[in-house]
Amino acid sequence: MHVLLDGPAAAPRLTRLDEHGAPSAEPETVAPEGLAERMRAIEVAERPRWVWDDTALRYPAVVAAGVRLARCHDLRLSRAILRRSARTAGTSLAGSPPDGWDREPLPPAAPDAGEALFDLGADALGELPADALDEYARQRAAIAASTAPGALGALLAVESAGALIAVELRRAGLPWDRERHEAVLESMLGPRPAPGRRPRGLERILDELRAITGLRALNPDSPTVLVAQLRSIGVMVGSTNQWELQEIDHPAIAPLLEYKKRARLMTANGWNWLDAWVRGGRFRPDYVPGGVVTGRWATNGGGALQLPAQLRSAARADPGWRLVVADAAQLEPRILAALAGDRAMREAGRGRDLYRGMVDRGVVATREHAKLGMLGAMYGGTTGESARLLPQLARAFPRALALVEHAAREGEQGRVVSTLLGRSSPSPSLEWRALQARAAEPDAADAEVRRARTEARSWGRFTRNFVVQGTAAEWALAWMAAVRRGLRQLPEAAAAGRAPGPFGEQAHLVYFLHDEVIVHVPEEQAEDAALIVREGALEAGRLLFPGEPLDVPVTAAIVEDYGQAK
DNA sequence: TATCTTGGCGCC
DNA sequence: AGGGCGCCAAGATA
């Protein structure tokens, strides 16, 4: 049962669709004030998949009206996947000219839109594009005609579930302790300065730097100026990045690095960030599902996916609530092992730390080596320690290594690679192809041949990583969708005098970071939530690898603040 | 003045 | 000559 939800805010419509996506009854028009009740009733009685053009556009108003949908089909996100997937090559959708369904995600919401974004009547419930039903039928047809209908269907389901979750995450927000955050800033930077002024904590280090170097006008905030100034006193650097400065033996280096570290905290997550992104004790970032070519999420403002470790203690559960901080251990190499059907590698990680397992089997000497080597294999590292470890890994895990090597070769040839569920990499640009073609001519200049090879290898590193990162992203979406489903089945906790959450006293997701989720949960249900998070991982493993389910160990720490996890 | 690019660095 | 990002400030450009 699928239901199309559209119509003007003054008279929203619900249209029942049959299994082919065709309307099976007259649209039902609902009075706006009764819409939430009607939707809730349909959710409970009929388990529909709601179909609409863009979850990010429409769902906020629905959540604001007190309804959380179980499932949806997001036409925009699905189009993006189907359009590019190698599995749908030859379908009419893949061959059709670009149209309005190929558009980009919405522009970023204003940072302080916060609650206002969710006001019903803010035209979020407008008419769907007139051809929404046609598009839905096209997508169904493309899936049916594809070489992997089951996998693609699963992919669109988890992608769409992710879109629902992203909206709910913003609605809920990550509980954020402003005082705690300010205390960290104070300890690193001193009191908040007047706008445009350096805080005292930075001023003090700067004085020290000026004394050491004798440069009265030393300006560490400008990389180009700083390079010139350092060279003027004989510190012959080519840039001012950390790894270059670290190698230099000079008394100014340590305080300079300290200055940069603290300045970074201020510019990225300082008082301005707090003012812009934290309201009413919640950090509300703007997630962008499918915002990365590999299928990972991106963010638009707020930098939710780059919360520095030093500030995690500011993510703190409300009184009477807990955070369940869950992390999928060594997700990407496990995904690779499963993708490649590499028995030995799967065994090395079964039920324990995968890297430790590699050490125990004598593949490498230390856990650090195992990690470094696997990252190098998945990213295409060709130098240093990680490259030296590759032969050992290739001997122990030939199938896993062969899979990433093959993906790299495909990319170097300009071919497309795909994830397990069928998300495909973009084609290289026309410039890239032209360069390769020119370099293949018999009279090509050496420089051009070299440049073409460099570019080919670079694209190969991208496709090499794409299959692993993209399939890991699919696992993470499936995981999160399962966790969401499990949490919704938890009853609301009994009132215990604590402040209610955004969904009453029901546990809910509050954060997502590629292979980590955080659940905000009434304290007496924290153990239940931890169980749901682990069960969700198993469910994701079954969805992606039904033949031989992948078991990714998940750590689930029950804590009061994020800083206590790990 | 507004917009784009770059360097640097935070996360996975 | 290690994949994917976002964000900020400074600097460059229009």
UniProtKB/TrEMBL annotation:
One of its GO terms (biological process) is DNA-templated DNA replication. InterPro entries: DNA-dir_DNA_pol_A_palm_dom, DNA/RNA_pol_sf, DNA_polymerase_A. CDD domains: DNA_pol_A. Keywords: DNA replication, Exonuclease, Hydrolase, Nuclease. Residues 88-112 are annotated as: Disordered. Gene3D superfamilies: 3.30.70.370, 5' to 3' exonuclease, C-terminal subdomain. It is an enzyme of class 2 (transferase). It comes from Arenivirga flava. The keyword Nuclease applies. It catalyses: DNA(n) + a 2'-deoxyribonucleoside 5'-triphosphate = DNA(n+1) + diphosphate. One of its GO terms (molecular function) is DNA binding. Its EC number is 2.7.7.7. PANTHER family: DNA POLYMERASE I, DNA POLYMERASE NU. Residues 310-525 form the DNA-directed DNA polymerase family A palm domain. It comes from the Bacteria. This is DNA-directed DNA polymerase.
